[in-house]
């Protein structure tokens, strides 16, 4: 048996031959060019897939975190909540295992008049203690402060508004705004509107335009008076330590809220929104995987040309003892190395890009002078990116498998080449 025949699979000589075939030579310049193009195509496809999926993961995580930080995880309504034992009901809700906060709240719509604009707003009435417990508001006061909130007759006249609303209205802390409620006192001619001036005590910013330009926080007693709620509230907003377990806590919260209670969770309120995000994510992943598959198909072109140009070499290797399996493995390694190298380069490029996506965004905006990620359109002030390493591992593994699979047809054709036919015209 020859030395070549005695060598085992993927032996050193098979790897050396595969590597030599990948080295560019003058007469094989076309093959080398296609190999470089294949490498770049796989690299860019994997880079695009990792980057886009990471941005979509980050976008969903940011939205979910801010929406669930700004809004509740459960919403409870029951006759007892507006009865004389409201504090006892709220205490029982707070005692449910997993519940970290329960806030009685009034929520109503109003018209806001400022020096430069008139806009609509959603007014939330909360107690000063509960407002300080809402960390996403209390910890994100950009101008002004919480000082004076809830102080005075019926809670006083100091309110908090979003910074984007303040910009639209042209007001700052200390300025007055006028609120108009459509639910005023009844008259002989029907219901009338109610109008009152309030002082802007502070501006909050949670990083989502839909909240920062639409919400106002008012002392609970004042909101009950202004919107004609008497001493009632609209619901109790509940936060839990694990939002994904909110649905499982609904029965316990319903029991704590008393007979006739209605409890809704955040998934019920935002079902269509997050379902649309999930569908978009799956469709985008499918489209980008198709791009990766198309990129790996370029490897077939380079291997077909390599096999054609190396027909004489293949015949010589066969005549000195190389088997069909050895030839198959040589060309599989030659082609797969292009795809695997491109995959690893795309992985590195994608991870680095996602890690420094905010400085890259700032640099592009500085160079172009335009906002590439407008908060008015995307609701977030920056491009988020969250790398899911299990997903990245799946992308890298599938790309490598597709690269190897793409080498099999031309490698099989090379292994079946007849040495006699290959050398006949040499």
Structure description:
With 426 residues, the protein is an alpha+beta fold. It has two domains: 214 residues, no CATH class; 182 residues, no CATH class. The protein has 18 helices and twelve strands. A six-stranded mixed beta barrel has the order 2-3-10-5-9-6. Strand 7 and strand 8 form a beta hairpin. Helix 3 packs antiparallel against helix 17, helix 4 runs antiparallel to helix 10 and helix 12 crosses helix 14. The longest helix is centred in the N-terminal third of the chain and has 42 residues. The model has no long low-confidence stretch (mean pLDDT 82).
Low-pLDDT parts are none
Give the oligomeric state. single chain
The percentage of residues in β strands lies in 15-25%
Please compute the radius of gyration using only Cα atoms.
Answer: 33 Å
- Main β-sheet, in a few words? 6 strands, mixed, barrel
N-to-C SSE string, H for helix and E for strand: HHHEHEEHHEEHEEEEHEHEHEHHHHHHHH
Give the tally of structural domains: 2
Give the strand tally: 12
Mean pLDDT: 82
End-to-end gap:
27 Å
* Major sheet: arrangement of strands: 2-3-10-5-9-6
Structural class computed from helices and strand pairing? alpha+beta
> Total helix count?
18
What is the 3D shape? Answer: elongated
Percent helix: 55-70%
Features:
six-stranded mixed barrel, alpha+beta, elongated, 426 residues, two-stranded antiparallel sheet, 2 domains
Quick structural overview:
This protein is 56% helix and 17% strand. With 426 residues, the chain is an alpha+beta fold. The strands form two sheets. Strands 2-3-10-5-9-6 form a six-stranded mixed β-barrel. It has a two-stranded antiparallel sheet with strand order 7-8.
């Amino acid at each position: 048996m020859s030395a070549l025949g005695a060598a085992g699979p993927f032996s050193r000589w098979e790897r050396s031959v595969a590597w030599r075939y990948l080295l560019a030579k003058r007469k094989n310049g076309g093959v080398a060019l296609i190999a470089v193009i294949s490498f770049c195509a796989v690299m860019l496809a994997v880079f695009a897939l990792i980057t886009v999926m990471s941005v979509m993961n980050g976008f969903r995580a940011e939205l979910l975190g801010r929406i669930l930080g700004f809004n509740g995880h459960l919403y409870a309504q029951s006759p007892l909540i507006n009865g004389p034992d409201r504090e006892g009901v709220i205490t029982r809700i707070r005692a449910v295992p997993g519940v970290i906060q329960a806030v009685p709240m009034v929520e109503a719509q109003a018209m806001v008049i400022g020096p430069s604009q008139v806009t609509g707003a959603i007014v939330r009435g909360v107690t000063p203690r509960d407002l300080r417990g809402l960390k996403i508001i209390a910890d994100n006061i950009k101008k002004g402060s919480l000082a004076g909130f809830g102080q005075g007759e019926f809670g006083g006249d100091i309110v908090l508004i979003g910074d984007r609303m303040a910009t639209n209205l042209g007001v700052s802390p200390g300025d007055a705004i006028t609120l108009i409620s459509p639910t005023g006192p009844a008259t002989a001619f029907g219901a009338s509107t109610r109008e009152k001036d309030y002082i802007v005590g502070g501006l909050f910013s949670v990083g989502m335009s839909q909240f920062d330009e639409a919400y106002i926080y008012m002392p609970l007693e004042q909101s009950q008076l202004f919107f004609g709620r008497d001493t009632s509230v609209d619901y109790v907003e509940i936060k839990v330590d694990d939002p994904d377990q909110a649905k499982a806590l609904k029965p316990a919260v319903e029991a704590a809220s008393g007979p006739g209670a209605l409890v809704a969770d955040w998934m019920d309120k935002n079902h269509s929104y997050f379902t649309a995000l999930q569908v978009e994510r799956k469709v985008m992943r499918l489209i980008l995987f198709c791009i990766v598959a198309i990129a790996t198909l370029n490897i077939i072109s380079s291997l077909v040309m390599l096999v054609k140009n190396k027909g004489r070499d293949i015949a010589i290797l066969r005549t000195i003892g190389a088997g069909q399996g050895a030839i198959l493995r040589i060309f599989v390694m030659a082609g797969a190395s292009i795809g695997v190298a491109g995959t690893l380069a795309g992985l590195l490029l994608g991870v680095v890009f996602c890690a420094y996506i905010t400085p890259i965004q700032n640099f592009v905006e500085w160079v172009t002078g335009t906002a590439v990620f407008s908060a008015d359109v995307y609701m977030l002030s920056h491009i988020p990116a969250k790398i899911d390493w299990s997903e990245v591992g799946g992308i890298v593994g599938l790309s490598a498998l597709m690269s190897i699979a793409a080498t099999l047809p031309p490698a099989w054709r090379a292994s079946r080449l007849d040495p006699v036919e290959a050398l006949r015209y040499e």
